[in-house]
Amino acid sequence: MSDFNAPRSTGNKRKNAGRPKSEAQKVLAANAGHKARKRFGQNFLHDGNIINKIVRAINPKEGQNLVEIGPGMGAITEPVLEAAGALNVVEIDRDLIPRLRTQFFNYPNFKVYEGDALQYDFTQLIDKEAENPAPLRIIGNLPYNISTPLIFHLLSYTEQHLVQDMHFMLQKEVVDRLAAGPGTSDYGRLGIMAQYWCRVEPLFIVGPGAFNPPPKVDSAIVRLVPHETLPFPTKDHNILQHVVRQAFSMRRKTLRNTLKTLISAENIERLGIDAGLRPERLTLEEYVKIADFVAENPLKADDQ
């Protein structure tokens, strides 16, 4: 899994031999020999300035319920632990897990969970015995190859009001899709459903040179903050997701064609929506209108 990694030491080794090691250099020494694994989408971040920017954006504090997806070699883990005093991490690469436990053995509130974040039940990290359990603050450098399904998995916890916020490093293209508005080529199912549940805040871009090995695309940091009150609540968010998925399954076609198995063109027009529009032209609010109509008026086979 992709991870936030420590800066690489630079300069002449002999010249620096007598100097005490920085914390970043200690991390590198402890994790020397681990090669990035393509199957886990690993790209190790080595730019110290970017690492500091990420931690400042997260702003971890004591008493918060922080969880990191894919801590990898633990360079982001360390400053977050120092600030918050506690951190849960989910890591899929079993070779990294003993390194992490050794590296942070002196933090009693550091816990490592081995597993695939796509399958992981994050409700396990909520203290159900507490009177006011702390909501999750989720951070991570999400692998490009699973970023979209993982975001959908994590959005399900915002529905349960279990998440305070999420900070992710993603492929810039994915961040563009998350934040896109109607009428743009990036607008689609991911952005509509993310914006249904959350306020989406793109923060800053990270170029390929900040990683080792460098990816072939730009990355970006994004913040997702669940809405305290949904701006356009739907009667059934599963139907909303189905409507949006169906609409964008053939995004070059008009709504009357893409949604004809769910709602007639006449009923789309009765909702005050032009059935001749392409799916990227509709707002979130308009998709909610269609979904609510479909929920209350399921189209029968003989009506199609």
What can you see in these coordinates?
- This protein is of the alpha/beta class.
- The chain folds into two domains: 23-226, Rossmann fold (3-Layer(aba) Sandwich); 237-303, Helicase, Ruva Protein, domain 3, CATH 1.10.8.
- It is 34% helix and 17% strand.
- It has twelve helices and nine strands.
- It has helices at 13-16, 23-30, 48-58, 77-84, 97-103, 147-159, 172-179, 189-197, 237-247, 255-258, 265-270, 284-296; strands at residues 44-45, 65-69, 87-91, 110-114, 136-141, 163-171, 198-206, 211-212, 219-226.
- The strands form two sheets. Strands 4-3-2-5-6-9-7 form a seven-stranded mixed beta sheet, with helices on both faces.
- Strand 2 (65-69), helix 4 and strand 3 form a beta-alpha-beta unit.
- Helix 6 (147-159) packs parallel to helix 8 and helix 9 crosses helix 12.
- The longest helix is centred in the middle third of the chain and has 13 residues, at 147-159.
- It is elongated and about 65 Å long.
- Mean pLDDT is 85; it is low at 1-31 and 33-42.
Q: In the residues, how many domains can be counted?
A: 2
Question: In whole angstroms, how far apart are the ends?
Answer: 45 Å
Provide the residue-averaged pLDDT: 85
Radius of gyration, CA atoms, in whole angstroms: 22 Å
Structural class: alpha/beta
Low-confidence stretches: 1-31, 33-42
CATH class of the largest domain: Alpha Beta
H/E element string?
HHEHEHEHEEHEHHEEEHHHH
User: How is the biggest beta sheet arranged?
Assistant: 7 strands, mixed
How much strand content do the residues show?
15-25%
Number of alpha- plus pi-helical segments:
12
The CATH superfamily of the largest domain is known as Vaccinia Virus protein VP39
Tell me, what's the shape?
Answer: elongated
Can you give the helix content as a percent range? 25-40%
Count every beta strand, where a strand is a DSSP E run of 2 or more residues.
9
Which fold name fills CATH's third level, the topology of the largest domain? Rossmann fold
Q: Report the CATH architecture of the largest domain.
A: 3-Layer(aba) Sandwich
Identify the strand order in the major beta sheet.
4-3-2-5-6-9-7
